[in-house]
Design a protein that fits this description.
alpha+beta
């Protein structure tokens, strides 16, 4: 398998821009998304592949670790898949809570929990997947948006397009590391909320600030 590393210069929070660049470069028909502060369970990709269906995107879940435990994790804990073990997390000071079922529930219980949960299937940056063709039809992520709902906004355009969300939040799991968020800006949060409001009100399926804009600019430069 050929691995492509798509990157750009660090000039602040520009997640939507680099995701659009990666989508344009991706050669597969089906794309799985996660974040750099997340550690996927060993069956992460297999679970997304198992549930992939035309006309749907998948909405996975995460278990968020406290800051102290996040800072203690070493690379070997990730390589040997200890971090996604409920027993290992408990042995390193994590208190039990019902949320721990996200990493401890077996196949049958996780399916049941996904059936009964009232949480909506939203596009979550830490754990979602969909068909590349569907993502291109909504023109990817809106590059005007900084941190705060930027992932969900694209999911809302997919829903407007008629692509339905399916919950696998207990079946496809990643562990989310806690960390400082110096990139959060109040001004950007307000702008993001307004963009999402417009997307829902107008039932928009397309952003003019997405992948196609980038491709047109590249063509002109050439």
């Amino acid at each position: 398998m050929k691995i492509k590393h798509v990157w750009h210069e660090d000039r602040g929070f520009r997640k939507c821009a680099i995701l659009n660049a990666a989508i344009a470069q991706a050669s597969g028909d089906y794309l799985v998304f996660s974040d750099g502060d997340c550690i996927p369970r060993g069956d992460f990709l297999a679970t997304h592949a198992q549930h992939a269906r035309r006309g749907f995107f998948l909405s996975g879940g995460y278990f968020k670790l406290p800051l102290g435990l996040s800072q203690k994790i070493k690379s070997e804990d990730i390589v040997h898949r200890r971090v996604t073990s409920a027993a290992w997390l408990r042995s390193h000071g994590l208190r039990w809570s019902p949320k721990l079922l996200k990493v401890s529930a077996g196949p049958w219980l996780s399916k049941l929990l996904d059936l009964v949960t009232t949480t909506k299937a939203t596009w979550n940056g830490h754990n979602s997947s969909g068909w590349k063709a569907d993502i291109l039809r909504v023109n990817g992520f809106d590059e005007r948006m900084e941190w705060g709902g930027e992932d969900r906004e694209m999911g809302e355009r997919l829903l407007n397009l008629g692509i339905r969300g399916k919950r696998i939040r207990y079946q496809a799991i990643c562990v989310h590391l806690d960390h400082a968020r110096g990139y959060v800006r109040e001004e950007a949060l307000k702008r993001n909320l307004e963009i999402r409001r417009q997307t829902r009100t107008t039932r928009a399926i397309w952003t003019t600030y997405g992948i196609a804009k980038k491709e047109r600019a590249s063509a002109k430069a050439a």
